[in-house]
Write a structure and sequence with these properties.
It comes from Chitinibacter fontanus. This is DUF4178 domain-containing protein. The protein has four helices and 29 strands. It is mainly beta. The protein has three domains: 209 residues, no CATH class; 204 residues, no CATH class; 53 residues, no CATH class. The strands form three sheets. The chain has an eight-stranded antiparallel β-barrel with strand order 7-8-9-10-15-14-13-12. An eight-stranded antiparallel beta barrel has the order 20-21-22-23-29-28-27-26. α3 runs antiparallel to α4. The radius of gyration is 28 Å and the shape is globular.
Length: 489
């Protein structure tokens, strides 16, 4: 461990690792560069936004049989949000990175240069990249700016530093191709190999407690937490640190809360209040854990506006995020997958030994309403392309846009389960164009008309039994879909 005084403010700065090139002064945010015979201030870096992450500098754990300690962090911002890259030092003197994005964690280790990598501009989601005899799939392509730093780091980074990275996956393993430092003298990007992990499996120690997260999340030192919409003054209901983006339910403004002040991005002056079954702030006990609804999105299929659904974002301090989806065909519990399906085609997808059959061809959906808090930037009009596959009561969904490819797994949930979780009554699926009560009334109306027409014919005609039979069959056909729908619920 190396100790020195900050050249800017005089506070003590620690270098825990011998391979760290810089350290960020905790007190004045100066970036301290260590060279062979001196330390010098090379400028300031922004303060990190304390978010919902339970990880902190000093957190330790075990990965691939090796003990590690978190010694630094950079916070990166891209068009749709923020993520953390935690710099870790292993006991054997080597280093790695623990990516922390929306409650999903990825451990990566340096491999050296990627000599065969295509140019950054040519890569798009779902392209293949060959490495080590395996075909990895491009799942994410980002250009992000470093907006904050903390602790020690292995290279010089500051405000304005741009990270250009591409993530590629195969099952639970993935590669990161880092184009950030590509130049004429260094034409090849850097390659990192890793895998998706769960925090509990890392045997992590010295994590932040729920109380610490709630106390500090969403705050920068010396700055207040913004609670009012800067457009209309309406109080914004959101969970600090979880939300980098809030959509005001009153005026439809999109408010960016990832900096030290709220900024109105876009105002939808004609936004209408959307009446959903669940509201932001509703809580549920699911499998013994308390989850809170923090945001909702209404989606509609672009080629069929009668096909729409509502997505509810739920959050728990320790377990992160999950989704509930309300559609005309019922409710589903949705989890974003850490592991990719083993294979997929237009007809089938194979995941964890199960074969899912194509349910829907590719279709496009767009956001038509959003309210609450989100850990990425969501805007009315955002579009995504979707594919769906089904196996029993489960569905695999592939979502793709120009920047990323995401897989999720949805499981059907009966209405009564939603009622129990959220302590609500009379929970139903999204209504079709005609209300159930209207459909029932219409069915009885047509039944009476049939009776009025056919009963005299049945009583006074030549074939009484035939008239009664066809009248009964018509009434059964009219009422059968409604009776079946009620029995399914």
């Amino acid at each position: 461990m190396f100790r020195t005084a900050c050249p800017s403010c005089g506070a003590e700065v620690l270098f825990r690792s011998t391979i760290s090139a810089i350290a960020v002064c905790e007190y004045c945010q100066s970036t301290v560069l260590r060279s062979a015979d001196e330390v010098k201030d090379i400028g300031k870096i922004g303060k990190v936004l304390e978010d919902y992450s339970p990880i902190q500098i000093g957190t330790s754990g075990l990965f691939a049989g090796r003990t590690f300690t978190v010694i630094g962090r950079i916070q990166l911002r891209y068009d749709a949000g923020l993520w953390n890259e935690w710099y870790v030092s292993f006991d054997d003197g080597k280093y790695g990175w623990l990516g922390d994005t929306s409650g999903q964690y990825m451990f990566t280790l340096p491999l050296g240069e990627a000599a065969n990598a295509p140019q950054f501009e040519y890569l798009t989601p779902e392209m293949r990249y060959e490495h080590g005899g395996r075909a990895y799939v491009v799942t994410d392509k980002r250009s992000a700016q470093c907006v904050g730093g903390q602790g020690e780091l292995p290279f010089v980074v500051g405000n304005g530093y741009v990270a250009k990275v591409v993530d590629c996956r195969i099952a639970e393993r993935f590669l990161t191709i880092d184009y950030s430092d590509v130049n004429a003298a260094r034409p090849n990007p850097q390659l990192y190999v890793g895998e998706a992990v769960e925090l509990k499996n890392l045997q992590a120690q010295l994590l932040r407690s729920d109380e610490e997260i709630q106390r500090s999340a969403g705050r920068l030192k010396g700055t207040p937490n913004v609670l009012d919409c800067p457009s209309c003054g309406n109080q914004l209901q959101y969970r600090a640190g979880v939300a980098t983006q809030i959509v005001c339910a009153a005026c439809g403004s999109e408010v960016d809360c990832s900096g030290d002040k709220a900024l109105v991005l876009t105002k939808h002056t004609e936004a209408e209040r959307y009446h959903a079954t669940l509201d932001c702030g509703d809580s549920a006990m699911i499998d013994g854990t308390k989850w809170t609804v923090i945001g909702l999105i209404e989606m509609v299929e672009t080629d069929d506006e009668d096909s729409h659904w509502t997505e509810y974002l739920l959050h728990n301090w320790q377990q992160g995020f999950q989704w509930l989806v309300e559609a005309k065909d019922g409710w589903s519990r949705v989890a974003v997958l850490n592991a990719m399906p083993e294979s997929w085609s237009d007809a089938h997808a194979n995941f964890q030994g199960q074969r899912f059959r194509k349910m829907y061809d590719s279709y496009t959906a767009k956001v038509v309403y959003a309210a609450g808090a989100f850990n990425w930037r969501v805007s009315v009009g955002d579009r995504v392309q979707l594919w769906e596959y089904q196996q029993g009561q489960q569905r695999l969904c592939k979502e793709k846009n120009s920047a990323e490819l995401v897989w999720s797994l949805a499981s059907k949930i009966p209405n009564r389960q939603i009622e129990q979780w959220f302590n609500k009554t009379n929970v139903q699926t999204l209504k079709s164009d005609a209300e159930p009560g209207d459909q029932r009334s219409m069915a009885w109306r047509y039944t009476l008309i049939l009776l009025a027409i056919n009963l005299p014919l049945a009583l006074f005609g030549d074939d009484v039994l035939e008239g009664v039979f066809w009248t009964g069959m018509a009434a059964y056909v009219l009422h059968w879909p409604l009776n079946k729908s009620e029995s399914d619920e």
